[in-house]
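== Polypeptide entry ==
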Amino acid sequence: MAGLAPGSEYSAALTRGRTFVGYRPSLTGTITWRDLTRPITPGYPRNTCSVAVKLAGDRVYVKVLTTSGDIYETSCTAPALVCTLGWAAVVKP
């Protein structure tokens, strides 16, 4: 199982309707971003307004919320951020 090196981090960003997940190996390192709105990750929802990221084992999970209250999720491998799974709807709270 992959673990975080001391000082490393995963981040998520939402800008201009596109969602990105990023990794940097140290606090002063450069973040490598992956665009999760690409055709290789199909099913990206419209009207996304919020994003969250979580590391669990060797996967980085990214959830987005839409303006209509729908939640979608995808994941990438850690730490390399290989993101090839499509977006799937999550049951609303």
Observations:
- The two ends are 30 Å apart (CA to CA).
- The CA atoms of residues 51 and 64 lie 4 Å apart.
